[in-house]
């Protein structure tokens, strides 16, 4: 695998593992102290670097050591937040602790002062990005909830986009992660909450984060087995009770449907 020489000098043939949890298509090499992320150049990739710089001192995010763009690829070497992400079996087997950490992460995001935030994640902007993805045929309908498309659902991504445009809910602005799922939240070895994959972060509606976190919890619990038995110690209402927030069914559904186009 090609790696620019200026980045190789930091690695010195150190051992690594590949992180295959994400669906972005990026190559993620996990070293003891570093993470090397290799991905196609895009606006989201550029936004992530901008947001990480803005968030330093506001949230625990990994600092970039060196970033190089070559031949349509971005090679970004970052510090590694040492610890466990919240999709780890240890947390899935202790739902009360996991929900406490999720709540702490959510509250940390909500507490960020959005004054001067360089990234705007309003529905108008997100829908414009979704429209571009639909026009370029980038929506993978096979990687969506079975109820979204087909029998009983929308006939196509175009029809879903049309519905989203015509049914926009009112927005309440705060700072959001934008891809707020368990693998992107890390409990460090020092007990700090860290955040990664911040390319969709910025000023938006916190319902977006709540929707994706709720879905991530359900997905991770449904696929987790302990001793050969599917673990079922989580119920969705537990999240909203822990957050002290009443679930807005319609807005949650809206943001989940919006995410199907990304």
Number of helical segments with 4 or more residues:
9
Described by strand count, sense and barrel closure, the largest sheet is:
5 strands, antiparallel
Whole-angstrom Rg: 19 Å
Total domain count:
2
Beta content = 15-25%
Summed up, what is this model?
By secondary structure, the protein is α+β, with helices and mostly antiparallel strands. It has helices at 5-11, 43-55, 89-92, 95-110, 123-135, 157-166, 206-222, 236-243, 249-259, and strands at 17-18, 27-30, 34-40, 64-70, 73-79, 83-85, 173-176, 185-188, 193-195, 202-205, 225-226, 229-230. Helix content is 38%, strand content 19%.
Notes on the structure:
There is one protein chain. The chain has helices at 5-11, 43-55, 89-92, 95-110, 123-135, 157-166, 206-222, 236-243, 249-259, and strands at 17-18, 27-30, 34-40, 64-70, 73-79, 83-85, 173-176, 185-188, 193-195, 202-205, 225-226, 229-230. The protein has 262 residues and is α+β, with helices and mostly antiparallel strands. It has 2 domains: 5-79, Phosphorylase Kinase, domain 1 (2-Layer Sandwich); 83-259, Aminoglycoside 3'-phosphotransferase, Chain: A, domain 2. It has a 5-stranded antiparallel β-sheet, sandwiched between helices. Strands 6-8-9 form a 3-stranded antiparallel β-sheet, with helices on one face. Strand 1 and strand 2 form a beta hairpin. Helix 4 (95-110) packs across helix 8 (236-243) and helix 5 (123-135) packs antiparallel against helix 6 (157-166). The radius of gyration is 19 Å and the shape is globular. The mean pLDDT is 92.
């Amino acid at each position: 695998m090609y790696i620019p020489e200026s980045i190789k000098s930091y690695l010195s043939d150190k051992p690594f593992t590949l992180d295959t949890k994400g669906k972005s298509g990026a190559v993620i090499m996990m070293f003891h102290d570093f993470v090397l992320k290799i991905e196609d150049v895009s606006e989201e990739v550029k936004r992530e670097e901008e947001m990480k710089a803005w968030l330093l001192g506001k949230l625990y995010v990994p600092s970039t050591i060196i970033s190089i763009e070559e031949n349509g690829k971005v090679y970004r070497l970052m510090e590694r937040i040492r610890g466990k992400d919240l999709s780890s079996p240890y947390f899935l087997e202790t739902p009360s602790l996991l929900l406490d950490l999720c709540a702490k992460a959510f509250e940390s995001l909500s507490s960020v002062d959005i004054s001067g935030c360089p990234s705007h994640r309003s529905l108008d902007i997100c829908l414009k990005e979704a429209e571009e993805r639909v026009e370029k045929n980038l929506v993978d309908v096979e990687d969506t909830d079975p109820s979204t498309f087909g029998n009983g659902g929308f006939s196509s991504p175009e029809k879903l986009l049309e519905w989203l445009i015509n049914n926009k809910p009112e927005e309440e602005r705060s700072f959001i992660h934008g891809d707020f799922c368990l693998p992107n939240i890390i409990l460090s070895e020092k007990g700090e909450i860290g955040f990664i994959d911040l390319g969709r972060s910025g000023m938006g509606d916190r319902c977006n984060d709540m929707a994706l976190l709720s879905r991530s919890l359900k997905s991770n619990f449904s696929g987790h087995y302990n001793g050969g038995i599917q673990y079922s110690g989580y119920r969705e209402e537990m999240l909203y009770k822990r957050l002290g927030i009443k679930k807005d069914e319609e807005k949650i559904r809206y943001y989940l449907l919006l995410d199907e186009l990304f």
